[in-house]
Amino acid sequence: xxxxxxxxxxxxxxxxxxxxxxxxxxxxxxxxxxxxxxxxxxxxxxxxxxxxxxxxxxxxxxxxxxxxxxxxxxxxxxxxxxxxxxxxxxxxxxxxxxxxxxxxxxxxxxxxxxxxxxxxxxxxxxxxxxxxxxxxxxxxxxxxxxxxxxxxxxxxxxxxxxxxxxxxxxxxxxxxxxxxxxxxxxxxxxxxxxxxxxxxxxxxxxxxxxxxxxxxxxxxxxxxxxxxxxxxxxxxxxxxxxxxxxxxxxxxxxxxxxxxxxxxxxxxxxxxxxxxxxxxxxxxxxxxxxxxxxxxxxxxxxxxxxxxxxxxxxxxxxx
Length: 319
Hints:
This protein is an alpha/beta fold. It folds into two domains: 3-170 and 213-240, Rossmann fold (3-Layer(aba) Sandwich), CATH 3.40.50.720; 172-212 and 244-279 and 298-315, UDP-galactose 4-epimerase, domain 1, CATH 3.90.25. The chain has helices spanning 12-25, 41-45, 57-67, 80-85, 87-108, 141-160, 186-196, 215-227, 248-258, 270-278, 286-292, 300-315; strands spanning 3-7, 30-34, 49-51, 69-74, 111-113, 116-117, 164-165, 167-169, 171-173, 199-202, 210-214, 239-240, 244-246, 263-266. The strands form four sheets. It has a six-stranded parallel sheet, sandwiched between helices. Strands 6-8-12 form a three-stranded parallel sheet. Strands 9-11-13 form a three-stranded mixed sheet. The longest helix is centred in the first third of the chain and has 22 residues, at 87-108. The N and C termini lie far apart (46 Å).
């Protein structure tokens, strides 16, 4: 079979997606790629690994040719908070990198998955039940790059027939990889701090409501979309997907059910609060459910139980 390439494979999504793909398709058939971060021993030793810069066409081209790649999951990206601090870098990685993958997919006939984000929406977008097709005027550089990626993927599908597909992820929560500079990072960090310190200082206000998803569902969504019958896909490159919806106060209450002496306080970061306030409170993911059968398995309480169980083992902390 043609190989699968995962860029950003050392990141929060990529580290888990790569291992899931290797179990499903065979470790030798899934090529993990990162830029500088040292991969885990499991990721490095379980299958092929390459260091590449995703904006370097020749470097990525060499990997695609070397392994006869037929599918690319392009996850390498600069996230929202880092993108505001380094907007030029965010554009280079998030847009120029996508262009490299699109051109290579066009040349070699690859299927290409490029994730988008809830950050692709802005303050003029309907806040509740945000439709699949609606106004997109983001006010963060991260959001600007994600909208650009969506449109570029649409263009390459329409113009050249490239099999492009994508998801608008909400905030993602994982017990495997640490967050990498996103606005929703609090929803991961709170579990670590609950176990380590029994307290957490949140950088968002207690009533900041956003959609979220546990990583096992995020991985399933990516693979299910890429395995879907293309004739059923009307939207292709930017499916709204979500699994649960909560505020920092509500996730703290969920943690307290398991760790009763846990306490949360708030010290608002104006940059990340501003980004969060520009995003929807909730998204309508009915198009994904209709077109390729999206059906998440985790809600807040089930996720909290699983996160604390796995992190307690990882950190060797009893609770």
